[in-house]
């Protein structure tokens, strides 16, 4: 397709060669991507007295005919035709010198065979053909599924993609499962990852990878598996030893489940909590010094949207007083004040426990002999030397 342009002199014929600078081959292939600009190269280099008169781009149709896209004349300027008007332009302001075609916003329908036709004087007509393949970058999505422990084998996530050529889907995960791929008539592909849900899988990676020749590396759709399960309850305490008179004592109930449990229910010996002990969420707070009668089984039940769990804590209380604590007991009896050690608290707790179980006896029993009415008040003091300050 090179040209020899010859000029006759008085004694010698001088010939110079003209031809295409690009594309170098008569037929070439090229790839592009939708929604991007596509450049189709075409540049003819003239030599000597040769001139490019007109440049025309065509697209070959399926029936063998040609669809005229754009043309440029060295005197009349350029013209765009039909559906290509406003969608294409020449790359250079002087298309006679550089005839490359720009498709401004490439569509899937632009795929096909293109011809760059160069008309020269006096050498004639020359062409270059370009077969254009248009790729559609994949549009992809991932649909996660919320699972519950104990369910049967089922789909945990679905990954979908559409593109041209058809994308390939795969999964990146450390979990064992089954993958099933399906292709629809509309040109989309779906991949299903199925497994048997266990609580140990909650939060594990289950990413979908979308592979396509138009992508330099696979597109990753990040995903974490969600497996809901009932809570497990545990009861802990910060006190290493519980003893009579212990202050600011607490039992703490924790529920490990998904979703995180929010409801806590406390019971003592299967019934109501002792007086002066209250539940604040997951904590059981002793709002007064610990009594010997507070011992026994404390149960905490935690609940989430999936189910419930419960645990029991057997509270043992040491009847021995802490060395730093003494109890000053004032007993009003014929005007006398008696100082007793803290061991008496154990006895008082037993009385309190017995009184709670047989309160009707105290309510119904009366005495008219005021000489034997006894009033008791317990005061905690940190130092035995302050006994002189005690009064009833």
TrEMBL record:
It is found in: Membrane. PANTHER family: NECTIN-4, NECTIN-RELATED. Pfam families: C2-set_2, Ig_3, V-set. It is a single-pass membrane protein. Transmembrane segments: none annotated. Belongs to the nectin family. Keywords: Cell adhesion, Disulfide bond, Glycoprotein, Membrane, Repeat, Signal, Transmembrane, Transmembrane helix. Residues 26-133, 138-222, 231-316 form the Ig-like domain. The lineage of its organism: Eukaryota, Metazoa, Chordata, Craniata, Vertebrata. It comes from Oreochromis aureus. GO terms for cellular component: adherens junction; membrane. The gene is nectin4b. The keyword Transmembrane applies. The keyword Membrane applies. This is Ig-like domain-containing protein. One of its GO terms (biological process) is homophilic cell adhesion via plasma membrane adhesion molecules.
């Amino acid at each position: 397709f090179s040209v020899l342009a010859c000029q006759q002199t008085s004694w010698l014929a001088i010939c110079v060669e003209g031809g295409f600078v690009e594309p170098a081959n008569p037929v070439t292939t090229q790839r592009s991507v939708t929604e991007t600009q596509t450049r189709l190269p075409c540049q003819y280099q003239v030599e000597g007295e040769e001139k490019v008169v007109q440049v025309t781009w065509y697209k070959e149709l399926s029936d063998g005919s040609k669809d005229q896209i754009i043309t440029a004349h060295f005197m009349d300027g350029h013209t765009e035709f039909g559906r290509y008007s406003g969608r294409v332009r020449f790359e250079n302001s002087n298309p006679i010198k550089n005839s490359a075609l720009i498709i401004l916003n490439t569509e899937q329908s632009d795929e096909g065979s293109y011809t760059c036709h160069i008309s020269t004087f006096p050498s004639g007509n020359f062409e270059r053909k370009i077969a254009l393949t248009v790729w559609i970058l994949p549009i992809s999505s991932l649909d996660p599924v919320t699972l519950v422990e104990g369910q049967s084998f089922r789909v945990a996530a679905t990954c979908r993609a559409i593109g041209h050529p058809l994308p390939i889907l795969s999964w990146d995960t450390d979990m064992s499962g089954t993958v099933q791929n399906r292709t629809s008539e509309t040109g989309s592909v779906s991949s299903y990852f199925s497994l048997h849900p266990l609580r140990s899988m909650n939060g594990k990676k289950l990413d979908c990878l979308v592979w396509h020749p138009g992508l330099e590396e696979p597109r990753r759709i990040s995903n974490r598996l969600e497996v809901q399960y009932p809570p497990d309850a545990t009861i802990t305490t910060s006190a290493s030893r519980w003893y009579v008179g212990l202050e600011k004592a607490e039992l703490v109930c924790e529920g490990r489940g998904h979703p995180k449990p929010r409801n806590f229910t406390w019971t003592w010996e299967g019934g109501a909590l002792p007086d002066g002990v209250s539940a604040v969420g997951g904590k059981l707070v002793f709002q007064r010094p610990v009594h010997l009668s507070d011992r026994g089984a404390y149960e905490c039940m935690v609940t989430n949207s999936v189910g419930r769990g419960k645990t029991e804590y057997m509270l043992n209380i040491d009847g021995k007083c802490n060395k730093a604590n003494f109890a000053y007991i004032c007993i009003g009896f014929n005007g006398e004040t008696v100082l007793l050690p803290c061991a008496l608290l154990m006895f008082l707790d037993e009385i309190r426990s017995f009184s709670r179980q047989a309160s009707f006896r105290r309510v119904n029993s009366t005495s008219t002999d005021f000489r034997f009415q006894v009033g008791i008040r317990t005061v905690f003091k940190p130092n035995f030397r302050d006994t002189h300050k005690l009064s009833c």
